[in-house]
Amino acid sequence: MSDRVLVTGGAGFIGSHVCERLCHEGREVVVIDNLCTGKRDNLAGFDVEFHEGSITRPADVEKAMQGVNKVVHLAALPSVARSLERPIDTHEACATGTANVLNAAKAVGARVVYAGSSSAYGNQQAMHKHEQLREDPLSPYSAAKLAGELYCRTFARVFDMNVVVTRFFNVFGPRQPADSPYSGVIAAFCRSLILGKSVRIDGDGGQGRDFTYVEDLVTGVLQCLDADSTGCDTVNLAYGASTTVMDVYELLQKFTREHIPGQVIPDPVMAAPRTGDVRHSLADVTRAKERFGFAPTVGFAEGLARTFAWYRAQIGSE
Predict the structure, then answer these.
(1) What is the distance between the alpha carbons of residues 267 and 263, in angstroms, rounded to a whole number?
(2) Of these four, 86, 94, 138, 153, which has the most CB atoms within 10 Å of its CB?
(3) In sequence order, what DSSP letters do the residues of 190-259 get, joined into one string?
(4) What is the rounded CA–CA span in Å between residue 10 and residue 72?
């Protein structure tokens, strides 16, 4: 039987890239998305069965899950900042929604890959965050995503399901929203620099991040999806390399000068550190490599160049 894969949140930034890869591989792809943060345009040209619905409604999930044998569960309400404003909505989407997805997957015997978050680690002494560390969430978002992980572990243990929890670290790339107050830093920087506007830097810019290009992340997700592991495994998907926010800004300034000659680059606006922000986020990716063969091929520098070029083309056509 060929795979029939359900991608929750498939119309979003990461979800649309997962769908693109699955379609390219000739798999049958089903998407459920409430279009709260996703866009139907992200799936343009991809052969998917689309269900507009919410993972917070069990009936919507059960309908989309029919005939599915694998699930990539990406649907969430992202952003630490948003979770401070809407903690209950964040809980519903990330925790209750995950319980609904797991329950529906249990009924059809589907394997699940869950998109966890590196925010589960919080601020800890260990520089490289490894999966054996005790979690220390600092925001409602990280707590809700961790609650989703706990449901994954419990469903795998109690109902004999096969689940992989993949912890994402600052994913970036084409199709990431750039014009929202909750936009990722790379997307927001690209847009501001291309438009000749000041970027906003929260804190001193010395925050370290394991920025991961979306194409490499998708490769890791599908390696976990297609593996034959049993029970519940938890792995970091990232590069294992740290880059500061200020380093990203300087690299993107360089790209702007090279590709948009004469562009005025105003001084950045320095803002107060954000509540719930982690100072340093750096992954230990040993387990992902050993258990699932995770080996990124694009890397940060090439991914950043591709991302800037994509935003330049998109903004130039607006």
Answers:
(1) 13
(2) 94
(3) HHHHHTT---EEETTS--EE--EEHHHHHHHHHHHHHS---SEEEEEES-S--EEHHHHHHHHHHHHHHH
(4) 9
Q: Where are the alpha helices (DSSP H) in 86-168?
A: 87-91, 97-108, 140-159
Bridge pairing between strands 212-213 and 232-237: unpaired
Q: Which one-letter DSSP state was computed for residue 80?
A: H
Per-residue pLDDT tens digits of the chain, which is 318 residues long: 589 999 999 999 999 999 999 999 999 999 999 999 999 999 999 999 999 999 999 999 999 999 999 999 999 998 888 999 999 999 999 999 999 999 999 999 999 999 999 999 988 888 899 999 999 999 999 999 999 999 999 999 999 999 999 999 999 999 999 988 778 899 999 999 999 999 999 899 999 999 999 999 999 999 999 999 999 999 999 999 999 999 999 999 999 999 999 898 999 999 988 877 778 889 999 999 999 999 999 999 999 999 999 999 998 755
β-strands 232-237, 163-168 pairing: parallel
Alpha carbon distance 109, 12 (integer Å): 25
- Concatenating the DSSP letter of every residue in 125-138 gives S-SSB-TTSPP---
**Does pTM top 0.90 for this prediction?**
yes
Q: 111: closest CA among 63, 166, 57, 60?
A: 166
SS3 state of residue 64? helix
Inter-residue contact 174 to 125 (CB < 8 Å)? no
> What type of residue sits at position 315?
I
Q: Which of 114, 121, 141, 239 is catalytic?
A: 141
Reply yes or no on whether 141 is catalytic. Answer: yes
Q: CA-to-CA distance for 292 and 286, rounded, in angstroms?
A: 10
- The CATH superfamily holding the domain 4-169+214-240+283-297 is NAD(P)-binding Rossmann-like Domain (3.40.50.720)
**13 and 79 in contact (C-beta within 8 Å)?**
no
Gap between the Cα atoms of 293 and 304, Å rounded? 24
